[in-house]
Amino acid sequence: MNTKKITGSEALLNALIAEGVDTIFGYPGGQAIPIFDSLYDYADKLKLVLVRHEQGATHAAQGYARVSGKVGVNIVTSGPGATNTITGIADALMDSTPVVVIAGQVPSSLLGTDAFQEVDVIGITQPITKWAYQVRKPEEIAWAVSRAFYIASTGRPGPVVLDFAKDAQVGLVDYVYEKLNYIRSYRPVPNIADEQIEAAAELINQAKKPFALVGQGVILGNAEEELKTFLEKANIPAGTTALGLSALPTGHPLNKGMIGMHGNVGPNMKTMECDVLIAIGMRFDDRVTGNLETYARQAKIIHFDIDDSEIGKNVQVTVPVLGDAKETLAAVTEYIRPTDHPEWIASFRPHEEEEYKKVIRKEVFPEEGALKMGEIVRKVSEATGNKAVLVTDVGQNQMMGIRYFKYSRTRSVVTSGGLGTMGFGIPAAIGAKFGAPDRTVCLFMGDGGLQMTIQEFGTIMQENLNIKMIVLNNNYLGMVRQWQELFFKKRYSGTVMANPDFVAIAKAYNIGSRLVEKREELDDAIAEMLEYDGPYLLVANVETHGMVYPMVPAGASITNIIMGE
Amino acid sequence: MEKKLYTVIIFSENSVGLLNQITIIFTRRQLNIETLSVSPSAIKGIHKFTITTFATEDMMNKVVKQIDKRVDILKAYYNTDEDLVHQEIALYKLSTELFIKMRGVEDLLRKYNARVLEIDEDIVVLEKSGHYVETQALFKELSEKIGVLQFIRSGRIAITRSKVERLSDMLATMEEKIKN
Questions:
Q1: Number of CB atoms found within 10 A of residue B148's CB
Q2: Which end of chain B is more exposed for a tag (fewer CB within 10 A), N or C?
Q3: pLDDT tens string A286-311
Q4: Contacts of A123 in chain B (CB under 8 A)
Q5: Alpha carbon of B156: minimum distance to chain A alpha carbons (Å)
Q6: What residues of B are in the A interface, CB distance below 8 Å?
Q7: Which residues of A are marked as active site?
Q8: Which domains does chain B have, with CATH numbers?
Q9: Looking at the domain assignment, is residue A496 inside a domain?
Q10: What's the distance, CA A431 to chain centroid?
């Protein structure tokens, strides 16, 4: 085999290229300079996106991975560079996002000496990664990088950290790429058990009132078509989790909306009436189930998942179906009988009508008063032909965004579901644009989250990234304020925000911007934003005391739905 | 659900940092590790952890799945005492002067099946293996009679009563899978 000695840094970049990487979100620093130096020579193959803070790098990698299905990659320095990535790594673990974070580390001779910018990255990241490994020798690079990508991207995806000692970056090595597709102790996809497939099909065939809960596992497993065929064969109505949104188009007749705390009334109520509940690639999060003591007690539960540790974690399951959703759904579909449940499906209707009357009409089609968050979301979605990628920050903007955006394509929602990370939005939108350059990327955020990672405007400026950003500005930390209004006697402690002139800030970053406050200007403002050639921030001043309804209070049974007055 | 003592047996690759990966899973659920023993297993390159903890069976089930999920873990199981032959070893350091003067040394050693490992003019070291209650009983008796200068008990080691060696079966299936 022909090899020549190259530095560890070059070996790393060669390994990344071999893994199909073309974009890196990074930030240099003392212990990562050799890697950045090598990147200088590889600029034609590896696009380096310089973020403004390492937290932004990890969220950008997440946004990239979520829309593209590829592994998002970060390169950062040791110490604070590495610790700044922690929030994004934890977020990626919660939301099963494949990300590889490569952090510089002090030379191995200095490890454990409290050297400048030394931190125990492995110790810190072990609880929030699928795998964390310290590379001390250049000879380990080929092995460690392929292992990192294999682990991050297979089975239930997740974050991997490589802690890269400086001497491994500068040392010379005979580099040979090692493709890895087997680890003895790691079984990413459990074998399909025929008895589980048959048992699941039998339950579904007997069901009079089946109901499916669709999670992100369907998207991660590229099983959207299999899902549709499965649901259509037995006419099973479905609700989706927040992260499962866009696995099934909004307009599909069997798509009954979102489940959970701010989900739709129909799917929440029907969860408590169905006779067979079919959960697919979701994990029964507390924001989905509400009170577990009362949750779907009447139903037999089938749980499709790739991760055995999710089976029975929160909810007792009648039939688990382990495996990759693409295969298990197809297998179960073969065994189920074509059937229809017209009355059952029609029974969602009154709930939809009630929600429309009590919540949606007022939120999306208001005729007077201040701008509503929901109406802006719906107008933006429709102005993009419901084809855009929706990125959200966290809070009211997020719930309004995911509730009122419409989805016609898969991988159209990038939101921080499990960890609920404020500040996720801007950097995730940056990553999403790199991951789906041909799609319109619309970011909804609040005035709070915007200011948590506002520095990433610099990245947008430098890359001239065509992202459409909408800040739903109510001068409050709106979701906390909502809880304070409902459950804390309107004592608005720590939620009032004095905000800067966002339009002026956007302009300072060469980002197109406009303030909109009046309903009659909204369509024009949205059109201007979407037609603008380049990044744009639409500052929408919305009603200050807006509420996200419906709402199931935390810990309550999911039929306990507040719809406002 | 009732809490009882479970023994978690874990087979892992021999890589750095595994103990931390395992203990954080216990810590996160506020499970106290009662005993811990780590050593190479009968299979080359594979390490075996034996951990005891008080928990409910439901909790144990979840913990073992979380441990099993870690990339470098080959397999994790939990067992109750009925499924296991288990043992601990204890060492007792005593004053030679008091030990010699103590009545009934021979009876004591026979009764507890303990043995003398070391003896010099200052100290005597006794060794006893057995279940916790047994090593504890000797400690109690010695403490009352002559006092114990130092006492140490190992973590539990255990072997399952079942006929099959579960790990070798699993490894065989894995090897089979690679071939196909």
A1: 18
A2: C
A3: 999 999 999 999 999 999 999 999 99
A4: 20
A5: 25
A6: 12-13, 16-17, 20-21, 24, 28, 61-62, 65-66, 68-69, 71-74, 171, 174, 178
A7: 54, 116-117, 166, 479
A8: 4-79 (3.30.70.260), 85-153 (3.30.70.1150)
A9: yes
A10: 12
